[in-house]
Amino acid sequence: MAHSSTVYNQLLQLIPRHQFEKAVKTYDGDRYVKYFSCWQQFITLLYSQIRSKDSLRDIELSLKSQSNRWYHIGLQDIKRSTLSDANNSRNYRIYEDLFYKLLDRCKSIIPKHRFRFKNPLYSLDASTIDLCLSLFPWAKFRKRKGAIKMHCLYDHSGALPSFLVITDGKEHDIRAAKENTLPLLPDSIVSVDRGYLDFEWLFSLEKRRVYFVTRAKKNFKYRVTGQQEVTEGARKKGVLFDQVIELTGYYPSKDYPKKLRLVGFLDSETGKEFRFLTNNFALAASTIAQIYKARWQIELFFKWIKQNLKIKSFLGITKNAVLTQIWVAMCYYLLLTYIKYQTKYSYSLLEFSRIFAETIFERISLIDLLSCNHQNLFRVRDPVGQPALF
Fold first, then answer.
1. How far is CA 132 from CA 5, 26, 140, 167, in A?
2. Which of 173, 120, 166, 186 is nearest to 324 (CA)?
3. Which of 72, 88, 180, 280 is most buried (CB neighbours < 10 A)?
4. pTM, whole model, 2 decimals?
5. Cβ atoms within 10 Å of 294's Cβ, excluding its own
6. CA 240 to CA 227: how far, in whole Å?
7. Radius of gyration in angstroms for the set of CA atoms belonging to the chain, rounded to a whole number
8. Helix axes 80-89, 319-343, angle to 10 degrees
9. 36 Cβ partners below 8 Å, 6+ apart?
């Protein structure tokens, strides 16, 4: 017996509708709306993410060609002018709030990171999204270039973007970190690159009992006050030295008056020598090096969302339209992640997203869809007769 609900409808049922409507009410999203509500706007933009649509016209034509299949999801009609007006005028924070509601749901089912220690592990970094300055004059980055910057706190448990801030391209990484209180609990570990090497900010983490791991700059001044033993096993793993230090520069010593740990490490693959700075004295020196190395996962995350979500070409040119599209895209990422972990789906998110794109309006349960292999995926589709040419 065919399933009575489409894949898209089942996906939308995962949205906390009550909390979504609460956000709409908070930001007056549906004020003076005749028929194209914030919910219908979200349905349309989410569809454009799933099917990778690049233009308003493409979205309109694609949905109208499927009009006999989307009546049950709450979409009444779709016009590109109406969608454009909605993207420009309705507060993007509605979808930002929805992102964090979905994030809370994901956190309850994600697996732990691969390290043996139990501390929550995060990486903090930023990525720039280039924009055409003539079309997006509000996003001025350089003299002839526009850009926005996505600042992300990446949770290694579940590969989740646990905190996002989107600023103009000129916003420095450390300034964004200082201006926003990161959701880091005591005993958490956060790895950052040298762009965040601001001792005042690092000491604010220390006062919150948050551990950090970063790379030391070549010219920073310090005094060695002690040595931690480097065993033969640690040397084989690449550990060169493990020192307890104090900062000696006038302002650095004022900004960070406590002791720090400096770990020297030789990467056997590249032959390069690294120096890592941390306030964690309990973990092995080799583990400190591996924590910083794991920071590469956030770079892979940025690469994935840029390649597979529509966050580089935009449906509108206003700041509100751009941010609306980005937050809806990140909501889609969380939906994919939630279903993957909830169903213990064995394939990658990329394969998962492509299956959704191909079967979004098919009448099949998600369980059946995810249990079939790629070879017989075509069998789940509704039987459609071959049109005759004559």
1. 41, 33, 9, 16
2. 166
3. 280
4. 0.90
5. 18
6. 12
7. 24
8. 100
9. 76, 77, 79, 82, 83, 86
Over the stretch 351-383, which tens digit does the pLDDT of each residue have?
Answer: 888 888 888 888 888 877 777 655 555 555 544
The pLDDT score that the predictor gives to residue 347 is 76
Structure tokens at 135: 């079309």
pLDDT, tens digit, 9 for 90 and up, residues 229-279: 888 998 999 999 999 999 998 899 999 999 999 999 998 888 899 999 999
